[in-house]
Specification:
The complex is a heterodimer of chains A (about 130) and B (about 750).
Chain A lengths: L1 E6 L3 H10 L6 E6 L5 H7 L4 E5 L7 H11 L4 E6 L7 H5 L5 E4 L4 H12 L11
Parallel strand pairs in A: 1-2, 1-3, 3-4, 4-5
Chain B lengths: L5 H21 L2 E9 L2 E7 L2 H6 L7 E5 L2 E2 L11 E4 L2 E5 L5 E5 L6 H28 L4 H24 L3 H28 L15 H15 L4 H30 L2 H28 L6 H6 L3 H11 L3 H33 L5 H30 L9 H13 L4 H16 L3 E8 L4 E2 L11 H6 L5 E4 L2 E8 L3 E8 L8 H36 L6 H41 L7 H26 L9 H15 L3 E6 L8 H21 L3 E9 L2 E8 L6 H7 L4 H10 L3 E6 L5 E8 H12 L1
Parallel strand pairs in B: 13-14
Antiparallel strand pairs in B: 1-2, 1-5, 2-3, 3-4, 3-6, 6-7, 8-9, 8-12, 10-11, 11-12, 14-15, 15-17, 16-17
The chains are: A alpha/beta (about 130), B alpha+beta (about 750).
Organism (chain B): Lysinibacillus boronitolerans JCM 21713 = 10a = NBRC 103108
Pfam families (chain B): HATPase_c (PF02518), HisKA_3 (PF07730)
Keywords (chain B): Kinase, Membrane, Transferase, Transmembrane, Transmembrane helix, Two-component regulatory system
Amino acid sequence: MITMLIVDDHPIVLEGTKNLFQENEDIIIDTESDATCVIQRIKNKPYDIYLIDINMPLENGINLARNIKAIQSNASVILYTGDDITDYYPLILERKIEGILAKTASKEQILRTVRAIANGEIVLPKNFL
Amino acid sequence: MRSKLFWPAIILYLIIGFYLNYVNYSEPYIQIGLEEENGRWVISQLYYKDWAEGQNISVGDAILTVDTEPINELKQLRYKSKILSANEITILKPDGDLINIHIKHLDIPQQFIYVLIIPACYYLLTLFVAFYLHFKQRNTKLADLLILFMLTVSLAYVSSGVSGRMDTIGIIVNRSSMLLCLVILLHFLRNYYSFVKTNWVFTNNIKLFYILPFIAFILGCVGTIYPASNDILSNVILAIFFILLVIILSILLISYFKYSSPQLKILLNSILIPFLPFLFLYALPKILFHTYILSSEISSLFLLLIPFSFIFTQLAERLFDIEYHITRLRYYVIFSLIFTVWFTVGLYLIAGHYLTMTVMSGVAFFTFASLVILFYVKEKVDYRKRKILFSTKGDYIHQLYTAVDKIGKTIKINELLEKFAYEVSMHLELEDVFVLTYNYDKNEFITNAGESITIDPDIMEEIRLGEIRKIDKVYIAFLHQDAHFKRALVLGHNNTIQLKDEELLWLELLLLYVNNFIENTKMVEELLEELKHMKQADDGQLPWLNKLLWLRFEEEKYQLAQELHDTNLQEQLHIAREVDVLVNAKNTTDIQEKLAKIHKQMVASLHELRTYCENLKPPLLDTLGLNAALEKLIRKVQGRANFALIYTIDRLYLEDERMNLMIYRLFQELLNNALKHSYAASVEIHLKEMNDGFEIIYKDDGVGCNVEDIIVAESMGIQGMQERVKAFNGQFAIDSNINEGMFIRIMVKEGSETLDYDAHSG
């Protein structure tokens, strides 16, 4: 059983992303569109994995990831962005996040990454090296 | 006591007084002591010795007739061996000469003045003052008592001469009025105490004391029936008189030492001081040295001042005023006296041989009087011309200071006016002080004028700046005026008011201050309002700038729309059409393959769109920071460039985050120029940290250009960079020549920019 919170300020993306996991009953999805509410929310109910959009107006995903890890050190964070993901690879090495996914990534890629990270593995694309 | 007693009292006073004065006038008072010797009445004592000498009357002469009647028929001689008054006497000198003497008032000036003229004058004066008090003072109970007191004192005085002649009515009037005047005084004091809110230390049952003068009246009647008892009776009356006097004085003394209020002090002084001449100049020397400095007639005249000194308590209800006048007079008198002594001594030393003592004392007195008058004249002139006043306490300035200080602490105008009125009422000891606000437009008063005081609107319209007017029973002082309202201060006090010059000046000054203060307060309020409006209208402050900005924004938007329309939109349209084809395709065998192709196209289109967005908003700048963003930019340029790009990027710690964007844009512009125009083999770009700022150095070995040309041509975005750097208070230096490459140095100090910003915002 994997619990996951998806944070994105665009409701349509949020809905689309959630739908990707519909058929996987072992992954339980919650969503949050307001980045500033996340910390308060996970104090009561922590998740295994956080899938977070980087470009959010009130708090960007990188800061949010840091804040989550500050109160929940075992949390796994996957950033999720429409930007060029190669810019963010260094964050994985700095152990600030566990993974990075492009919004254009396929369903299969996403599922694989989530499962791998849930298993404590790190999935890196080839062009990272 | 009610004012209906006034007219009966006056009529009684007139009748009795007329009679008494007539008796005094009818026969001169001569007072010749007699002794019976061998059946003849012989003169043993002469009271007016000068007169007797002049008329050749001497001790030992026998009196034959008085007023043409034989002396033996004079009734009074039975009880008193004296001739008290007579118009004509016949004496027999020891040598046998018969002398007939007609006595006229003027023959004996002393008796003429002290027995006839002064009592008569006092009588008339009292009458006038009584009328004055009655009509001026609106019949307060105190005034009535004072009038009665003065009338009885006057009667007692006038009757004293008459009773000396053993006149029946004179004796009765004299005895009753002596006691009556003290009882009335007691009554007056009791009421006066309650008027000035001081505790009355004696019994409140004053009416009981009115029995005493009644007893005196009865005793007087008894005395006329049994003339032999006169001496005893007069002693009884004197004893009661003395007891009453002691009671009154002790009341005053006790309450003065208990409460020591200025009113009591003056009251006490006004009773005690008239006694002093009698005590020190007559009674004490008489007892101690058997001689006197001032005769009893003269020294007792001072006692008659007592009723008049009480008038002050009525005329000026605010005893404060008397104190002011007394201290001022004392001040002037002391000054004048010192100078007079100085002057007289000088005069004596210089011209003492030629001048008699009489001339000297006359000159001294004249000098003294002139000086006192001079001081008063000077004071008037000073006030009229220069607004300078004699100040007894010297604290008017101080009080003005504290009043202004207290008033100045208020912020709102209404509060200010209230405090001002309070200060004025406290300082001037007035009861009704308030600020009247008059509305011009509606011609009506806004603040209630109070029930007791009504002000004519015309007066409000008339009164001008700096004016203090006395209207009827109140003063009205102009305070402030603006477009809609006129404010005035109204001062009233118990239906009677008289402000001194000093107080008026004080008030005038304070009014001026308050007027200015209101003006300033209003100005500050208006300024604040204006500032508020300005703040609200701040955006519209530079319409041309707004217009320019708006046009620029619109232009940008137009360009954006055009670009998106030309590129991404077309692609998306194409994809949509392809998908539509697939949706309606009948042959679904290779649909997967075709969809994958479309997906590829879409991702490509997305990438293009992302690049486009990244151009508009530099990526990473607000997530990973300036350095990451610059690194990414440089990697991108390196990917496209034909030149070798050498770069160093220091990590900057800038307070102003907007600087990051500027630096990024400068890099972007410089590198874009290098890509497009330089044709360089190698390009260097450096971002260096400096003390409170940064420096960007760009260097290439490309074709270069003429600097003037660039600036004129507005090409290459160099001008844009220059402007941006200037906007941040930086320095932009460019050095280039054709075929000699290009060197650009940009320096921005954060401190100077911040300072400048502060200066503007401050």
